[in-house]
Amino acid sequence: MDLQTLAAQLTDGALTTDPDVVAAHSKDEALFCPHDGAIALVRAKSVEDVQATVRFAHAHTIPVVPQGARSGISGGANATEGSILLSVAAMQDVLEVNTSERTVRVQPGLINQDLKDHLRPFNLSYPPDPGSVGISSIGGNIATNAGGLCCVKYGVTRDFVRSIDVVLADGTLTTFGPQTAKGVAGLDMRGLFIGSEGTLGIVVEATLRLIPLMPDPVTAVAVFPDERSGLQAVADFMAAGGQPSLFEFLDRASLTMLNSYGDFGLNEEAGSMLLVQFDQSPAEAADMLGAFGAVAEAAGALDVAVSDDPADSAALVATRRSIQPAYEHFAHAHGGGQLLDDVCIPRAAMPAFCDRLGELRESTGLTIALVAHAGDGNTHPSVFFDAADAQQTATAEAAFEQIMQIGLDLGGTITGEHGVGYLKKGWLAKELDEGSRWAQRAVKDALDPKNILNPGKMLAEI
Amino acid sequence: MDLQTLAAQLTDGALTTDPDVVAAHSKDEALFCPHDGAIALVRAKSVEDVQATVRFAHAHTIPVVPQGARSGISGGANATEGSILLSVAAMQDVLEVNTSERTVRVQPGLINQDLKDHLRPFNLSYPPDPGSVGISSIGGNIATNAGGLCCVKYGVTRDFVRSIDVVLADGTLTTFGPQTAKGVAGLDMRGLFIGSEGTLGIVVEATLRLIPLMPDPVTAVAVFPDERSGLQAVADFMAAGGQPSLFEFLDRASLTMLNSYGDFGLNEEAGSMLLVQFDQSPAEAADMLGAFGAVAEAAGALDVAVSDDPADSAALVATRRSIQPAYEHFAHAHGGGQLLDDVCIPRAAMPAFCDRLGELRESTGLTIALVAHAGDGNTHPSVFFDAADAQQTATAEAAFEQIMQIGLDLGGTITGEHGVGYLKKGWLAKELDEGSRWAQRAVKDALDPKNILNPGKMLAEI
């Protein structure tokens, strides 16, 4: 095995073994996940670079760690021992916008927001909008089946991918999925590879489904005396036929941290806040606002305020999107540690989830803040801790795991949108039944018999 | 191998070997597909019946042919030599409607329209509406990832299935997919099994995603002097941002056959007709109608008529849904033969597709009629022939195949929604590239190593 043989097959300079460069590319944003041991970094400039690298790795049984923007928080892009890091971050072209078919062909390294900006002049939208929309790549979004704020109306990444070009475990290039709006010719390998976190193949191109430009929404903000009543209002509104295009929940701790971080003018008395948007026609949106207000007040809302000014609406969403910096600001002042979870549960179980989080706060003494893509039941509790305090760190890690158990207890999943990666690999077997674990192992073994594609992560412990 | 051993494990009377009964259950609605050789029929009454049957078949390496309503037209439910027919048609209960989660749990034998009727009092809709909506089952819809008329706005069956309970090839019962709105824990086995046509496992329960009751649409009908201009109007309207909830095309031959079949009052001079619906708010729908009218007229429409009367709209859709009986009426008078294709192509390729169909009519002398879920580019050409005339039958079969080749030539797929089954199994390898064929075989072999699940069909010749 001679890496120079590989380097000679690649675009000039694509391969580096410089330890500093390799180390700088060896991890994503996850905590507590190992990331040592990579032997090289390939910065692919072309599909051929990806194929050559995987072919080489296959021939020599070397682990390959596919990487996009490394913005993930589950360790899915972290180096493993003896691995080649294979980054497609530099492949970021928009290849073709097809207006009559409403599709766009893109390279995997393209940043989600850059795609959105590219499409706007065509009056077209690509809806999926993970919190990382400004820094995460389409390839990474596909690898994790990324969600976001608009899922409650528009769905997740898988719903917007028509076809993908994939490099398989032996370096073969193939296309999964038709170029057409519909197609049922054979098994849905496209859907299988979406969300497979680099364990089945490497996406080198995607044809994405688009929709006409999303209209400006109207926005309502409701504040509640406590968390439980806010979450109950979410479940009630969805049961009553509510059709929001965004439906976010922030708990008291999150509101306090936002107010400490910036001048957001949020109600200091609020026990929780809901942010809801409707992007139907003005008449329908007005009906929805009325219905939401009624449900919120019945659930005990202290105040419901409405804005149909696009700038106001955008500012409110920007406030919501500031939660992670606000968390980091808080964490920085309290020892630096934050573990962000993403348990998704049935909507009606959210009040009970909130109760269980309260018990966890009491039993651990830790600060645990909660935001949620509440319309989908997709919760994001954050556990804060002093990273210099080994005892508290251990308690936080245990609390992070306990949150997954609470999710499972309530009929939910350990991960709604962040993925399993390294961080949650030990928990996947707790969620999946025996038949499902067998089927997943069987598929993985069949498609990557040498287990070279992102080993030691998602499927490693089922 | 003693079938009485199996019978003893099943609900009383579930298994029969009566040759007449077995023969009567040995085929679906496809032409030219063999259907002999079944050794028994199991009419499962429970999940346990399905498990026991598959376990028995697995132990004795007996082919199992899963069956729902047998309304398919690709031969996917047809008997094969030495097989056990395993029908879930009798398992047709609605198990639970969950209004806050907007889901319904159903058994696989439930008829699609019966589900829709059941949901209406809850103000909830299950959108997928294949042409067979009144006779096809949810399990069959899942097995083929069925489409329909509303796909252009709402998507296909896969988009509305949250989770499925599946009996695997060895009889193990498992659940694929979370009960929650989002979930990325592990590989998407749910999506893989949807559309797998009974080759990977047998769906015994499904949790379906619902939406609030779909509003009454407004309807427009545009008639054109010829086929090409009607199809061009479809591509133009979609490129201009049109958002129909239904967008159907009927060619001259189809209009003539409808007029001969019933009193539909369709324009006798029309070369083609578009039927379009919009179910947005009244103001938005009015905008869409105006935009559609302008595009249609620019494309050469002879007339554009609008109706916002729900009864009128329903009558127009009923006319469209009468096309298959009208085809059968025509076929009956012309030797009985009809082969219905379902090639899906890019929308912009539809005018060229129409030209190629015209050439095929000329070269074969056959009547070929065309309807299409045009908004999706999903075409349904029907080739008519005298089934008593061997020469003409052979010509028709060749024309049916040539239509698939035209679809592939134009960047499309051999099947948009009917499935591969037996009828198109020889063509699947023409559509899929080498890597895709390898991946599909690998997955099939891994999940059904004895090849007992619906063998000799979809994946048999890749």
TrEMBL record, chains A, B:
Known EC number: 1.1.99.14
Required cofactor names: FAD
Annotated transmembrane regions: none
Coiled coil: none
Enzyme class: oxidoreductase
Gene Ontology molecular function terms on file: FAD binding; glycolate dehydrogenase activity
PANTHER family: GLYCOLATE OXIDASE SUBUNIT GLCD
The protein's name: Glycolate dehydrogenase, subunit GlcD
Organism of origin: Brevibacterium yomogidense
